[in-house]
Design a protein that fits this description.
This protein has 160 residues and is mostly helical. The protein has 7 helices and 4 strands.
């Protein structure tokens, strides 16, 4: 699924105005630098629909009778869901005092595995790096997250 996710992100970026997308074996670098983890999370959460759209779109491929509309509909639905989520986050970040802090905490709750502060920055593009560090330290003191490792390679892990 990894290669297809990279392709989805690249195609989506080009569709929405990017002049170029650089793809490597490990990650896609988008010139607009959107929160790519959001698209990945949406695809991961709807993985059954993802595979079903691929299956339905490839039926009749060898006979030239395939229909790409199931995959297209899935892809457009994924992009629409990502934009709705971004709108909601933008409203949260500007609505009330403490909103950015709540946005960071909510983003942390969506990570299912270990994450880096950079990944959290991508999930909360309207929040400063320093604010993210402050909230991570608060959550660490509350016992909600723990730091794994030290220095540049350190990661964070949510404590359920």
């Amino acid at each position: 699924m990894g290669r297809l996710k990279g392709t989805l992100k690249g195609v989506g970026s080009l569709c929405f105005g990017a002049d170029y997308v650089v793809t490597t074996r490990t990650k896609t670098v988008d010139p607009f630098n959107p929160p790519l983890t959001l698209l990945e999370r949406i695809i991961e959460e709807s993985k059954e629909s993802y595979y079903e759209s691929l299956r339905a779109s490839s039926q009749g491929w060898h006979d030239g009778r395939h229909d790409l509309s199931p995959w297209r509909d899935y892809f457009l639905g994924t992009v629409a869901a990502a934009y709705r989520e971004l709108e909601r986050r933008a409203e949260l970040a500007t609505a009330t005092p403490g909103a950015k802090r709540n946005l960071i905490r909510e983003a942390v709750e969506h990570f299912v595995a270990e994450f880096t502060s950079k990944e959290l920055e991508l999930a909360c593009p309207m929040v400063s790096r320093e604010m993210i560090r402050v909230v991570l330290r608060e959550m660490q003191a509350e016992g909600r997250v723990e730091k794994v490792g030290e220095g540049k390679g350190s990661r964070w892990k949510r404590i359920p």
